[in-house]
Design a protein that fits this description.
By secondary structure, this protein is an alpha/beta fold. It folds into two domains: 347 residues, ABC transporter transmembrane region fold (Up-down Bundle); 235 residues, 3-Layer(aba) Sandwich (Rossmann fold), CATH 3.40.50.300. The protein is 63% helix and 9% strand. It has 21 helices and ten strands. The strands form two sheets. The chain has a six-stranded mixed sheet, sandwiched between helices. α1 packs antiparallel against α12 and α16 packs across α18. The longest helix has 50 residues. It is elongated. About 1% of the residues have low confidence.
Length: 617
């Protein structure tokens, strides 16, 4: 349970609901544990003693003479004290007052009404508090995912993360709701039942032996602890396998064309079915341990109650005396059983919480500066001061030392894996340099707020991502406060306006998940429109024209000729036709910059660049 204590502070906004739930739980526990046995011992005798006397009188009238009946009745009166007569509400005519009987009979439904209403209030309020806490946890997880570094997402499957955010939070919510329903009620019920048992037993010395049966309760704790440890272990395995299953499903759904093109149906089905079978095995083990505990505790409680009944019979205790005690004894065992089930649910919820905390406690590899400095780009000069970086043991960038002047267009060229994308990612601070420093306008980017840095950079990636929203909203991502007129102007600059107005709903057309309703070239031009709309002083183009046909590429080049002046631009080029606007070429090879200069100069001096360029000529 200690893992859950840090989350109690989230109850602050619902503290009065939580207080009400506690009060209702206490009322329920007292009404169940103490109230019902007490009603059984104190109220039932009032009802059934009168019935027994009335029955006796009726039978006696049938067989006795009037004089004998009078003599017998007077004899019974002598046996009943005035205090007992007042307690039973008997009048001089030996008949109980109907109002006393009505009151006595009415106590039973009143007790159950109090018990039921308090149970409802406790369940509703505690569920309200639990769901609100889980709502905040979900939001905190999502917010944390928005600021975690790209390296975190490279280490973890998206499907696995989805499972943690959706499945594990649901499991945690279900567990907390189940636990919260009984966490207050059952301990109070247990204490109330123990109190009633002690009260009723000590009131009559002959019944004190029943208290010895309480020694079987500690025995019930042993299976609770054992099963709880097993449950936590199996629940962890089940949640991990559930994450793997979600990962396989997510991966499959993201590549429907590849699955069909390469005839991967049987392979994918085998992967998925194997994962389903493993998950089934773990789920059944969880079910086994979750449901084994209740019968064990019921057996232990039955042994305790049987011992009580045995001793009651040997001592000649009447049923009227023993029933309230047996009832109280049962009410003391029932909460133990439910607390055992709570322990199992806590184990399951703990496994889910551990997987959730994997995200919540993930280190911020790219932290915000403690005191961010004001940041506004003047010229946009970018300085790499002996920068090195690696994703693992192999260096990706080695001792990069150069300055890109403000307003300069620089093309990054080199074979795959040479370090071009890493170079651009460091400028955007998607990763932090591991040695050296990176400055923009002589300010280390680690000293400025990340939001200020991101607002100063426009990015167009090679594989742009569109959200399942309208075309207008997908362009507005470039600047959220943009007007419709500004969005349309940006689309015209990206040569996207004409195809957009030809769509079924124009700018209000839903593009589908990841833009599946658009062609590759159309998605790329919408991404370019975002960059036009953002109009940031630093522009990073990761082969922004790779998905365009020749005609569209020419138009985009014309648009870039208008967009680039006055901006510092980094162009990652795979197709060399896109670097004609660049006044400077950086050639990367194995994490080092081996050539730096204008195209003609680099072409003459760098064999690698000459070879790459000639292959595309």
């Amino acid at each position: 349970m200690k893992k859950f204590w840090p989350y109690l502070k989230m109850l602050g906004p619902v503290k009065w609901h939580f207080t009400g739930a506690i009060v209702a739980g206490i009322i329920y526990g007292l009404a169940s544990g103490f109230g019902l046995p007490f009603v059984t011992s104190e109220v039932f005798p009032i009802i059934f003693n009168q019935a027994e006397y009335a029955h006796f009188s009726k039978e006696a009238r049938e067989v006795l003479e009037p004089g004998q009946l009078k003599e017998l009745t007077e004899g019974m009166d002598a046996l009943i004290s005035d205090e007992q007569r007042d307690e039973l509400g008997w009048t001089e005519g030996h008949q109980q007052s109907p109002w006393v009987l009505i009151f006595a009979v009415g106590i039973l439904p009143l007790s159950f009404a109090i018990r039921g209403l308090s149970a409802f209030a406790n369940t509703y309020l505690i569920n309200y508090c639990g769901v609100r806490v889980l709502e905040r946890i979900r939001c905190n997880i999502f917010s944390k995912l928005q600021v975690l570094p790209l390296s975190f997402f490279q280490r973890n499957q998206s499907g696995e993360l989805v499972s943690r955010v959706v499945v594990d939070t649901t499991q945690l919510q279900n567990g907390i709701i189940f636990v919260a329903n009984d966490l207050i009620k059952q301990p109070v019920t247990f204490l109330g039942a123990i109190g009633a048992l002690i009260f009723l037993s000590l009131r009559e010395n002959d019944l004190a032996f029943v208290l010895l049966c309480l020694f079987t309760i500690p025995i019930a704790v042993l299976p609770i602890r054992y099963v709880g440890r097993k449950m936590l272990k199996k629940a962890r395995l089940m949640q991990d396998e559930s994450g793997d299953l979600t990962g396989i499903l997510s991966e499959n759904l993201s590549a429907p064309r590849e699955v069909r093109a390469f005839n991967l149906k049987e392979r994918e089905e085998k992967r998925f079915f194997n994962s389903v079978r493993k998950l089934f095995g773990h789920q059944m083990k969880v079910v086994k341990y979750a449901n084994a505990l209740s019968p064990l505790i019921e057996f232990i409680s039955a042994v305790g109650i049987a011992i009580a009944i045995y001793y009651a019979a040997r001592r000649g205790v009447t049923m009227e005396q023993v029933i309230p005690l047996i009832f109280a004894l049962y009410m003391s065992y029932e909460p133990v059983k439910k607390l055992g089930m709570i322990h199992n649910r806590v184990s399951q919820a703990t496994a889910s919480l551990e997987r959730i905390e994997y995200i919540l406690d993930a280190p911020m590899e790219i932290p915000e500066p403690p005191e961010p400095k004001p940041f506004k780009i003047d010229s946009g000069a970018i300085e790499f001061d002996h920068v090195s970086f690696s994703y693992d043991k192999s260096p990706t960038l080695q001792d990069v030392d150069l300055t890109i002047e403000g307003g300069q267009v620089v093309a990054l060229v080199g074979p795959s894996g040479a370090g071009k994308s890493t170079f651009a990612n460091l400028v955007s601070r998607f990763y932090d340099v591991q040695s050296g420093s990176l400055k923009i306008d002589n300010r280390d980017i680690r000293t400025v707020a990340k939001t200020d840095l991101y607002n100063s950079i426009a990015l167009v990636s090679q594989d742009p991502v569109l959200f399942n929203d309208t075309v207008e909203e997908n362009i507005r991502i470039g600047r959220l406060d943009a007007t419709r007129e500004e969005i349309e102007e940006a689309a015209r600059n990206a040569f996207a306006h004409d195809f957009i107005v030809d769509l079924d709903s124009g700018y209000d057309t839903i593009v589908g998940e990841k833009g599946t309703r658009l062609s590759g070239g159309q998605k790329q031009r919408i991404a370019l429109a975002r960059a036009f709309l953002r109009n940031a002083p630093i522009l990073i183009l990761d082969e922004a024209t790779s998905a365009l046909d020749t005609e569209s590429e020419q138009k985009i080049q014309q648009a870039l000729d208008k967009l680039l002046p006055g901006k510092t631009a980094i162009v990652i080029a795979h197709r060399f036709s896109t670097i004609r606007s660049a006044g400077r070429v950086l050639v990367f090879d194995k994490g080092r910059i081996i050539a730096d200069g204008p195209h003609t100069e680099v072409y003459e001096s760098c064999p690698l660049y000459k070879d790459l360029y000639d292959k595309q000529a």
